[in-house]
Write a structure and sequence with these properties.
The chain has helices spanning about 20-30, 325-330, and strands at about 5-10, 10-15, 45, 50-55, 55-60, 60-65, 70, 75-80, 85-90, 95-105, 110, 120-125, 135, 145, 150, 160, 170, 175, 200-205, 210-215, 215-220, 225-230, 245-250, 255-260, 275, 280, 290-295, 300-305, 310-315, 320, 335-340, 345. The chain is mostly beta strands and about 350 residues long. It has one domain: 3 Solenoid (Pectate Lyase C-like), CATH 2.160.20. A hairpin with a 4-residue loop joins strand 25 (about 275) and strand 26 (about 280). The longest helix is centred in the N-terminal third of the chain and has 12 residues, at about 20-30. It is globular and about 60 Å long.
Length: about 350
C-alpha cells in the first residue's frame, strides 16, 4: 500500500471519516488481539503549518517538521487502525504544541525525536496503541504533558529516554499500560502475573530533572513509575543515572520503584556496564530524587534500592528500602531521608 505525503498550510483543515462502534471492534481484533494481520496506514501527512481537525481521521499518521506548529485536534480522534510501521505522531521540531486530540490504534502513539525541545501536550489522550504511548527520545528537553490521559498502551505509557531532561507531567492520568506480551502479541490484563515482560506507566531511564505532579497512576502492569539507569543492553552506555527527579501530590495504586534494575537478573541482556555477583546483576543508579505528598492505595509500594533519595508525607501503602544484591556485595543501602512517614510503613524487608 502506497503512502502519500502531504504538506498542510496554516490553519488548514483535513476531513476524515467518522468512527463507528463496529469498526472499532475490528481494529481491536487486528491490533490488540495478537497482531495476526499486518495493518498499515493509508496516508502520511507532514505538517509545516498549524493544523486544525474538523472530523475524526482514520488510517493516517502525522509528522511535524517545522518549529512552532500547533496541532489542534478540536476534540476529534486520529485513529490509525494499524499495527505495522505506524507511529501516530512523530515530532521533529522545537516548540510544537499538540492539544485537544485523541491518538489511538497505532503501532506507537507519539515519538518525539532526539534533541527536540519545548514540546507541549495539552488535553491529549493517547490510548490503546500496540506499543508505547509517548516515546521521549535521547536528549529531548522541556517536554510538557498537562491534562493528558495515557492509558491502555501495550508497553510503556510514557518513556523518558537517556539524557532527556526537564519534562513536566502534571494533572494527568496514566493507567493500565504495559500488558502486551512481546513474544505472542497478546494482551494479558487478566493474567498480570503470567506476563514476563510487564512494563510501567512512566519509565525514567537515565533521565534527570523531571517533574511529575498531580497525576494518578493506576493499574499499570509493572508499576506506576520506574527510575533506573539502563545497563547499556543495546551497546550504548548511559552517562546519567535517573537522578534529581521530583514526584509530588500524586496517587498510585500500583507503585514507584527507584533503582528498578538493581535486583533484576540481567545476565542475558549483554550489558555494557560491568556485571557483579555471579555475572547476573549490574549496579543501578537513581539518586537525589524527591517524593512528597504521595498517596498509595491498596497494596501499592514505594521500593527504594539506591541511596540519597528523599520521601516526605506518604499516605497508605508501604515503603521498602532494601536491596538483596547490595547486601550481598557488602554495599548495603545506607541513606534515605524521610519525614512525616509512619514507621509502620517503612521496612527493610522485601515482601
Amino acid at each position: 500500500m502506497t503512502l502519500r505525503a502531504m504538506n498542510i498550510t496554516r490553519k488548514s483543515r483535513f476531513m476524515g471519516a467518522r468512527k463507528t462502534a463496529a469498526v472499532l471492534a475490528v481494529i481491536q481484533l487486528l491490533v490488540i488481539g495478537g497482531c495476526a494481520t499486518k495493518e498499515y496506514v493509508n496516508e502520511s501527512i507532514t505538517l509545516a503549518e498549524d493544523h486544525l481537525l474538523d472530523a475524526d481521521v482514520l488510517k493516517t499518521k502525522y509528522t511535524i517538521n517545522a518549529a512552532g506548529v500547533v496541532l489542534d485536534g478540536n476534540g476529534y480522534t486520529i485513529d490509525g487502525r494499524c499495527n505495522t510501521d505506524c507511529i501516530g505522531l512523530t515530532i521533529n521540531a522545537n516548540n510544537v504544541t499538540v492539544r485537544n486530540v485523541t491518538i489511538t490504534g497505532f503501532d506507537g502513539g507519539v515519538s518525539i525525536n532526539p534533541h527536540v525541545s519545548g514540546v507541549r501536550f495539552e488535553n491529549v489522550k493517547i490510548l490503546n496503541n500496540v506499543n508505547h504511548g509517548v516515546f521521549v527520545n535521547v536528549g529531548v528537553n522541556g517536554f510538557t504533558c498537562n491534562n493528558c490521559d495515557v492509558s491502555d498502551n501495550g508497553t510503556m505509557g510514557i518513556y523518558l529516554e537517556y539524557n532527556s531532561y526537564g519534562a513536566v507531567i502534571e494533572n494527568s492520568r496514566i493507567a493500565n499500560n504495559g500488558y502486551r506480551d512481546k513474544d505472542t502479541g497478546s494482551w494479558k490484563q487478566n493474567l498480570k502475573n503470567d506476563k514476563k515482560d510487564k512494563r510501567e506507566g512512566l519509565a525514567i531511564d537515565s533521565s534527570q530533572n523531571n517533574i511529575v505532579r498531580n497525576t494518578v497512576f493506576s493499574g499499570n502492569a509493572l508499576t506506576g513509575i520506574t527510575l533506573y539507569r539502563n545497563c547499556g543492553e543495546r551497546g550504548i552506555r548511559r552517562e546519567w543515572g535517573a537522578n534529581y527527579n521530583h514526584i509530588s501530590n500524586s496517587t498510585f495504586n500500583d507503585g514507584i520503584h527507584i533503582a528498578a534494575r538493581q535486583d533484576k537478573d540481567l545476565s542475558s541482556w549483554s550489558c555494557v556496564e560491568p556485571y557483579i555477583l555471579d555475572s547476573r546483576y549490574v549496579m543501578d543508579e537513581a539518586e537525589y530524587n524527591i517524593l512528597d505528598n504521595i498517596t498509595l492505595e491498596g497494596n501499592a509500594t514505594i521500593v527504594v534500592q539506591d541511596d540519597n533519595n528523599s520521601i516526605t508525607s506518604v499516605n497508605g501503602g508501604k515503603i521498602i528500602f532494601s536491596s538483596v544484591v547490595r547486601d550481598a556485595i557488602n554495599q548495603p543501602l545506607a541513606t534515605l531521608t524521610t519525614d512525616n512517614i509512619d514507621n509502620t510503613v517503612l521496612t527493610k524487608a522485601v515482601n
